[in-house]
Amino acid sequence: MNDSLIIGGKSYHSRLLIGTGKYKDFDETRRAIEASGAEIVTVAIRRTNIGQNANEPSLLDAVPPSKYTYLPNTAGCYTADDAVRTLRLARELLDGHELVKLEVLGDPKSLFPNMMETLTAAETLVREGFKVMVYCSDDPILAKRLEEIGCVAVMPLASLIGSGMGILNPWNLQLILEDAKVPVIVDAGVGTASDAAIAMELGCDGVLMNTAVAAAKNPVLMAQAMKKAVEAGREAWLAGRMPKKLYAAAPSSPTGGVIGKAA
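Above: the chain sequence. Below: its structure as tokens.
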């Protein structure tokens, strides 16, 4: 069965997107990404060296762009102008790379998205030819507006970045999913494998995570668990779960031919 994730006109087998920050070193980053099976890796341009610091170790050596699709992001940006400048730099460093992750934060404590600045930045970036995947609140109206602007994927938070609280509002995610014509990828708040599976069982097209893997006691093993969870959740959604009911009103096995029962 061909069940590829298509983003910005490109097809991917893995529906798990993984970050490259917060690991103890680039070697652990590489091993975790390999264990995850991810094909798209996010890179915080302001925090990770991808060539802007010539005399320092570069992520490009540990996680080669020839093997993975880089997704430069604007982590640490609090204004639309700052985010746009950061992604212009990323495009220059990565030889014209167009696929990017936009996030404009509202405050340093919660890291909740500033949606007004996000909308402004998205309009500019789409106009300049970027293929924008956008971190956003779980507001279905704003998610639809980002799609209308031309973003290639909307990425509502499950809960706050780095919180590990899992999916706190599945109903809003379902509203976004019902109306979306672009991939919906849960971004932020995943803490463990069951969170990722639930996101996929809801019908999300993918899950993006960083802290859940990097902050685990064994990041490589957790990355492996997340790979399985995303795959299992996707298969469960495709299979179509049985309806929920308070109790079984009818036996699950046929009763015809059972002693004392009429055929």
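The radius of gyration is 20 Å.
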